[in-house]
Amino acid sequence: MKILITAGPTREPLDPVRYLTNRSSGKMGYALAEAAHDRGHEVTLISGPVSLPPPEGMIVVKVETARQMYEAVRSHLGGQDTAIFSAAVADYRPVAKAEQKIKKTGETLTLTLEKTEDILGSARSVFGFTGYLVGFAAETERLLEHAHDKLARKGCDLVIANDVSQAGIGFDSAENEVTLCLPDASPFPLPRQTKAALARELIAFITQQAALKKT
Ligand code: CTP
Ligand code: CA
Questions:
Q1: Which protein residues have a CB closer than 5 Å to ligand 2 (ion)?
Q2: Domain made up of 2-93+113-214: CATH architecture
Q3: Would residue 22 show up in a list of annotated catalytic residues for this protein?
Q4: Does the predicted interface ipTM exceed a cut of 0.95?
């Protein structure tokens, strides 16, 4: 199977020395890419800036901004069987990048931001992707409600929901605990485990479900 995976945060420049970003180490996305490669899949990893070494044996495309990630997904999505969107994409970017460093003049500073491209939300509606589509939902409240809303709104086959208000899971930690949300089944919680172990379990599940969708 050919699998495209997005991972890591994006950076939206404000001036030559500053940017807006999201908390994301990229560990979950990189673990998924490794697990998919180990299972024999052909992997394309589209990664925002992370401090992890690039995994071997796959195509790795490094990007910075949400717009660059959008363009990279657009150009690599054709021919993929499965796409897993684990990146923590910035939702807004400064409308313009200041050419010079912004000086500390006033007591307050107001930034004007504009929405970025919704990459996962474009997979079906803009890019015409018909393969198996997986999104993530990192939430601090009403986890399953928000996850099911994303499942429907973005046309996903699976949303992996992640309660990021709990200590010791998500973000920079080595472990994660997620619930699988599917269109026509009850939410399925998986036990807390290392991101590597969880990635293997998720890739096994996704491999099976994607094959079922094809037949
Ligand atoms: N996503 C994306 N492009 C964006 C925003 C999100 O591809 N511009 C993807 C993420 O990679 C994730 C899923 O959409 O798989 C859900 O991301 P999330 O931030 O939880 O959802 P949003 O639609 O941005 O909604 P909100 O942040 O308001 O909860
Ligand atoms: Ca978001």
A1: 91
A2: 3-Layer(aba) Sandwich (3.40)
A3: yes
A4: yes
